[in-house]
Amino acid sequence: MISLKSLLTEGSALTDDFLKRIMQWENSIKAGWNDKKQRWFPHKSVEGGNPTIAYGHKVTDQDIRSNRFKNGLTQSEAIELLKNDLFAASKKAASLI
Q: How far apart are CA 50 and CA 34, in angstroms?
């Protein structure tokens, strides 16, 4: 089990197991995945508001204006986006404790 403290420690690595669990939690039904194109595309967000892409990344208004995800994301790009989102969230959480 990964503790919040270890996740928030600068330089801590996200294990493959942890990433797989988050990926399963965030999008187990693979909403937005296009098998034919082998890419993720924005889909309706469960929370409402702007769409979501891949593993829980909320598409911003700027993303929409710039057509950032027009061509979708490869699986590798989706995983990198997830890692970036987790790092940003952990930094924000660390600043609060």
A: 20
